[in-house]
Amino acid sequence: MARKAANQAKLFAMAGPIESQTFDLVAGGGWPLMVGREKADIKIADPAVSRHHAELSFRDGQWILQDLNSSNGTFVNGRRIDRPVHLRHEDRIRIGTTILQFLFPASWNPPDPASAEVSPWVTKRKVSPGDTVAGLDISNLETGAERISQEIELTERIAQAGRHAINLSHGIKNILQAVIGGREAVDEALASDTLPQARKAWTILCRNLDLIQKLVIDMLKFVRQDNPTLVKTNFNSVVRTAVETLSLGTKRQKKKIVLQADTKIPPARLDPDQIYDVVLNLALNAIFAVPAETGVVKIETHFNAAEKKIILKIIDNGPGISDTQIIFEPFHSTKEKAGFGLGLSIARKIVLQHKGTIEVESQLGHGATFIVTLPLETPS
């Protein structure tokens, strides 16, 4: 009977490089099934997966999953496993950037106290003599569902980064070539004792090193699941700091940045560092879009007292945006645009984590307006 039940077990890929594939789990020969990047029964072509990542074995009518000291770990329902785990129907397994769902409807799944999201309880109420009321505590059920949803979202972001790895490698290669060129120019200047040439080469070198640093930081911000640290925040102060940071560079580019702040905005419950990133990324996008000499970026803050919402507007007089539907997609950029296309994606991610909204209004030839709406009190 156990062999027959085992043959009904499946793994379904919910996300990742093998998305939508189904694997039938067949117990036979007493050998475990290998999960890994190479020469495996369940092969996942993903650099985040070890060659021999994990194994599945069938014992006493149950499937058991064990991590094989993989580099990035094996996760079941959001928890990294460090011992063999008995799988239950509809468990979610994350290996690298792949999320697999274990399907074993024919099995009986005994409760696992370490990972159960639903716990039984019995209590007595004075309804009538001798009555006992039994119930089910589902207080952790919503938390478990949210965790799985966050895990799927995180995995998709990692998978997106993987899918665009070639584009990233080309961009990094170009930056490194500029770094090498700057280093060679510095060497030549030092050899000939030419200080002005050394200064010029050093500027090129530093600029490109900053680009690499920004790329690494942006990638981490995009991939990581950093929940906001909510504190009482002076919203205008955060926006003003971002504007001051950008002012010198904007002036050097012969462009203008203007702040018009609503002084009636009360303290808001936000993550000031993350909101600073939102303002900075949206403003940088606008500054890049506007022309020298006549380019103006206007930043406005408003307070909707009736709805208790803060509104941030970033308005530019650039050429406008032809397709407002895809600009928030990660790694999306135009041929004219420098960078890796992560700034707007990071801004959107942060705004959504604050339970806010972000939208863009634009007409070709008439500039663009980004509108961010945030609740005064972001729910925990």
Helix-strand layout with pairing:
Blueprint: H1 2-6, E1 10-15, E2 22-24, E3 33-36, E4 42-43, E5 54-59, E6 62-67, E7 74-76, E8 79-80, E9 85-86, E10 92-95, E11 98-103, E12 119-123, E13 133-137, H2 141-163, H3 165-191, H4 195-223, E14 231-233, H5 235-252, E15 256-260, E16 268-270, H6 272-289, E17 296-304, E18 309-316, H7 343-353, E19 357-362, E20 368-375
Parallel strand pairs: 3-4, 15-17
Antiparallel strand pairs: 1-2, 1-11, 3-5, 5-6, 6-9, 7-8, 7-10, 10-11, 12-13, 14-16, 17-18, 18-20, 19-20
What's the SSE pattern? HEEEEEEEEEEEEEHHHEHEEHEEHEE
Distance between the termini: 48 Å
Looking at the structure, the CATH topology of the largest domain is Heat Shock Protein 90
CATH architecture of the largest domain: 2-Layer Sandwich
Cα gyration radius (Å): 27 Å
Number of domains: 3
**CATH first level of the largest domain:** Alpha Beta
Strand order of the largest sheet: 2-1-11-10-7-8
Q: What is the overall shape?
A: globular
Report the total helices.
7
Helix content: 25-40%
Main sheet summary:
6 strands, antiparallel
The share of residues in extended strands comes to 25-35%
- Spans where pLDDT lies below 50 across 5 or more residues: 1-6, 108-128, 132-142
Structural class: alpha+beta
The CATH superfamily label of the largest domain reads Histidine kinase-like ATPase, C-terminal domain
- Overall average pLDDT: 78
Task: List how many beta strands DSSP finds.
Answer: 20
Provide structural commentary.
- With 380 residues, the chain is of the alpha+beta class.
- It has three domains: 103 residues, Sandwich (Tumour Suppressor Smad4); 73 residues; 145 residues, Heat Shock Protein 90, CATH 3.30.565.
- The strands form five sheets. The protein has a six-stranded antiparallel beta sheet with strand order 2-1-11-10-7-8.
- α5 runs parallel beside α6 and α6 packs antiparallel against α7.
- The two termini are 48 Å apart.
